[in-house]
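Supplementary Methods, section 5.1.

A reviewer requested that the exact input to the structure prediction be made available. We therefore reproduce it here, unchanged from the version used in the analyses.
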Amino acid sequence: MLSGDIRYPGYLELLKAELVPAMGCTEPVALAYAAAKTGEILGKPPDRVLVEVSGNIVKNVKSVVVPNTGGLKGLRAAAAAGIVAGRADKKLEAIAEVSDGQRREIAAFLKNVPVELRVADTERVLDIDITLYAGPESARVHIAGDHTNIVFMGKNGAVIFAAEDEGAETPNQTTLDVEGIIGFADTVQLDDVKDLIGRQIEYNSAISAEGLRGDYGANIGKVLNSNYTGDIKIRAKAAAAAGSDARMSGCAMPVIILSGSGNQGITASMPVIEYAGFLKKSGEELIRALVVSDLITLHLKSGIGRLSAYCGVVCAGAAAGAGIAYLQGGRMEEIAHTLVNALAITSGIVCDGAKPSCAAKIAAAVDAGILGYEMFKNGRQFYGGDGIIAHGVENTIKNIYRLGKEGMRKTDKEIIRIMLDT
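The structure derived from this sequence is encoded token-by-token as follows.
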């Protein structure tokens, strides 16, 4: 795909829009961002807070450590952090800079200011609505559809801003397919992507190294490296899992997210980075392979949506397998079979929110991606008609869309009910 192809600018803009930095798990940080923006509008400390969120926000905030809060978890902690120490101009890095004094203020705020939580009656999966009260005054901010997509701002009953579209999740307008993605990766001008992908390599490698160095969550990355053989397959899984270990347990280092998720960003990148080092590939070869992995992750997620009961790292793990295949000279045939094989293995993994076990799911998803490619190299494959697998990679992907978006809606609601009961 040459730069004159009408798809070229769309693919490039999609990467620029998606590969952005975030500090901490994206849902609690999105909540902190909304709270910071609401506090900015109110202009004074609140004496009461109302947080209304969709069930999927509850699911992805309930059990994860909010960065820079001294180990606090959950929706109240995320809102308090945003109100006390958040910088709305930083968006998904809103609470990246929190002093020791502010951490103490966050703890005091939670003791002294009532924070009411409500599960919103909405069909939107990503919905955050915060109202702050200070005596007779109030301010409200509503985010919907995407983590930083503000659809309403108001103060004292007056509308400051109201979007026209009610915050429905905007579908990806760029037409993605596996063949087009490979063509783009083969021909993209390096100057168009090297800084973008270079930042992904830098940020995600750093948090992966921190996860392997420190003591985070269940230490899945460390367990893999210390209890198994340490070969490249293990190292690839451990590198991805370790980044999630750190991130889910409150590490304040930023990551480059993908499809709105840091875990997906780490999963799509770290195994490919590890394999590139092992295979002694050039910087250019790594960049092109990461373009494959990133765009295939977005392709797989585009028909499911940002949040679902379908675990997003399944998509990223399969895409990482595709990136690893690309590094080793694989193109359409190899990558298509890798994806179909991997998706056949792990598409039953559910998302039950952000928490330390995400790292173990990442390891399983990366393992499936690598196995999918190894199967092809050994002349083995899963066939159309086997379960949800269809004839052709794009038809299989359509089935994944159907499963993740439609088929698992009731599953998603039941997971949320279970989590609210525990």
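Residues 190-213 form the longest helix (24 residues). These observations are discussed further in the main text.
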